[in-house]
Structures are given as C-alpha cells and as structure tokens.
Amino acid sequence: MLVLGHFVFVLICLLIYAVNTHVSGQRRHPSAAIAWVLLIALVPYVGLPFFLVLGTRKFVRPPRRPAAPQRTFDDTVRAWAIATLEGMGLGAPEAQQMVRFHADGLMAWDELAAVIDSARRRLDICTYVLANDEVGKRVVNLLRARAGAGVRVRLLLDAAGSLRTSRRQIRRLREAGVQVRWFMPLLHNPMRGRVNLRNHRKLAIADGHRLWSGGRNLAAEYFQGHDRTPAWIDLSFTVHGSLAQAALDLFEYHWRHTNGPQENSPQADAPEPSGPAPEAGRHLAQMVPSGPDQAEDTVYALLLTAIYQARQRVLAVTPYFVPDDNLLTALRLAARRGVQVELIVPRRSNHRLADIARQRALRDLVAAGARVRLTGGMTHAKAIVVDDALALAGSLNLDARSLFLNFELMVAFYAANDIAAVDHWIAATARGTRPFVAHPVSLWRDILEGLVRWLGFQI
Description:
Helix content: 25-40%
Shape: globular
Number of domains: 3
CATH topology of the largest domain: Endonuclease, Chain A
Largest sheet: 9 strands, mixed
Radius of gyration: 22 Å
Number of strands: 18
Strand content: 15-25%
CATH class of the largest domain: Alpha Beta
C-alpha cells in the first residue's frame, strides 16, 4: 500500500509539473526538462517544492505575429543580426552620440562617477552587487550627494547578489532621500516560482540620456582590486544617446514590479536638449535584453545565428563557459569549417563548480580546432566579436543560468569603429594568456563533470 501511495504521489507531482509548464507557456531546454522530471520522479518530496519555488523561467508568452515582410538592409553584412532581433520583437538599432569602452577599472570608475555627477533631474542605478568595501561606500556617498542636490535617485539591488550589503549603508541612503528597492526578495512569495530568477543587469542612467553599463558590479574587485590582488579583468562602456532611454524603460519595468515604499507618481521630465545629432552609422547600436521579461531567448538566438553566419572569426570572452549542446555544436562546426574560433576564460574563476562543469566543453572545442586561452587572474568580462559585422558587450555569461534564467542585458554594436574597439580590447586581454591543453580524464572525473553541468546549471 505504501508503494502504491508513493507511486500515485509521484504521478500527481509529474502532472503538476506538466500542467504548470503548459499553462504558463514555459518552453524549457530539453536537458533542463529532463533534469526536472528526474528530480521530481526520484525524490518527489523534495523535487516538487523545489520546482514550485525555482521553476518559473518566463513571465510572457511569445506573441503570435503575422509573417514578417521581406526587408532589405543597406549593409548586408549585418542584416542577419538586425533581422533576427527584429523578428523577436526588438526595436531597430539607432545611431548614438557617443560610445566609449573602458580600458580598465580606473577608467570605468571615472566614467561611472562622471555619469552619476552629470545627473540633474533623475538618476537610476541597477546592480547585482553593492559591496561593503571602499568602492561601495564611494558609490553610496555619490548617490547621497546627488539626492542632496535635488536629483531623484533610485537604486535597485538584486536581493540575492546584494544579500551582504550593509543595512547601515541602506539606511544612510534612505535618510538622504535615495529610494532603494530589492529585486525579488528571497522570502517573498516563493510559491510564485521566481526566487531563482535574478537581476544580473548593471545600469547607471542619468536623465535618460547618459548610460553606464557592462559587466561590472559595484565592488572593489571590479575597479581597483583588494590589497595585493589586482582588479578583475572586465568590460564596461558609456553611451550617450537613445540607448540610455531604452535602458531607462527596462529599469522602469523592474521598478514597477518590485515591492517597495509607495511614492508619488513623478511628473514627466521635460525633454533634455540632446546635443548635436549623431552621425548616421557612426555608433549604430541596439539594446538586447534577455531573461524572463522577454518572450524569446534573445541573446541565445542571436548567438546561434551569428555563429552559423560567421565566415572569418568568432571571438568570445566570458568568466563561465557552460554552453548548452546547441551553442557548443555551433562553435565546433564553425571551427571545423575554418572560422577562427577563440575563447578567453580565466584559468580559475571565482566559482569552482563552473570550472568543473566547463571542462568537457573546452575539450570538445579544442578538439574541433578552436583556440582556448586562459588568463592568469579572474576575468569577468562578457564580450563577443563576429567577423566585422557585430560586437556584443554587457552582463550575459556563456552559461545556462545567464542564457536562460537571469535578467541580462547585452548591447549589439554594429559600427566599424565600435567593433574595432571591442576587438582591440579582446586582443589586449589575450596578451599574457596561455593555451588550454586538453588532457584525458578518468571515468569518474567525466561523470563528475557531467553531473555538475547537468544538475547545477539546468534549474
């Protein structure tokens, strides 16, 4: 009788999984779906609660659109990227007044401070981590100063990434008039299944016109390092132009859907003088958000399209490399057909499980003819260059969590000078690296790597 009761309970749990997935329109990767089904079937008393807490992946369904009309683009080299993103409902790229990539942490800090100081009416900050170190304190002081100058300052912190943020610093911010909210608190209504969806986007937006973004969190290791430990290798950038307004729209979406103190609805800002009109095509760029607020896996789809379209090179920098089978296959096939495929990752990242999970993919890449380079220190940057057609930079790592779960943000750069800037930055990062050498592994090591990759990066 106990066996029969357990069997019935397992069937009920699997039925709950199937109905929830169907009704909510959750389109899971096959390996993720298998992982959930096995977890629920083997340990249902643990698996079902885990699924109800962590199982949501998307908030919106793909809209039903009529067939897209045939379009022609002036530049056929980048037409495939623009058409792919337009097909997923994203707006067309626009020329920006200025784009500047930050060569190192010191330049990144100067640019961040300049964007914060430039705010005259409103300043909006979104980050995954606000640390309790010197950089975190300096950011707090800058925000307090802008609020004291009459600027409306809002700070959105991810509840998991900033779990250790000093509550004393938060009180200081609020006492100065800064509005602070937490993105998806860990103990808030876990049955909605959203605890697992973290906001990994990094944004500083001044007056809806100036944007600072990229891969850096607001902590010392991203700008200046700790003691004798050098700063992490990372990439961020500043943009003046319409991308800032697009980033502000993303911020407003998060702010509206985050619990916090009630506030009076702000009056609409008067249009800010935009300065000289941007030169057509000089800084052509496009916001590419990815995550539960997007019906499609936008960056993932763009990456697959880009790799299959590549004819000369695919250069990528990422701290964690745990791709799904489709992305890994695309990279391997590109290398086999003669495309220069080059990947830069840290020799040892700050996440040991990610280092274990990546080994099989790195061996497969090298076997296909790709080059994998290892940096001596921690590399946290997220950057990709495809031929002379596209450069991507932002917050998304090449692992399943970033590709399919987190709220992430990449910017697609199409102008030749901006692609060259990212290309030169990657070349500078490659100096001093050493090649990854694939060694045979034991059966038990191979099993360990597979389990870590399968279980640890699917939910």
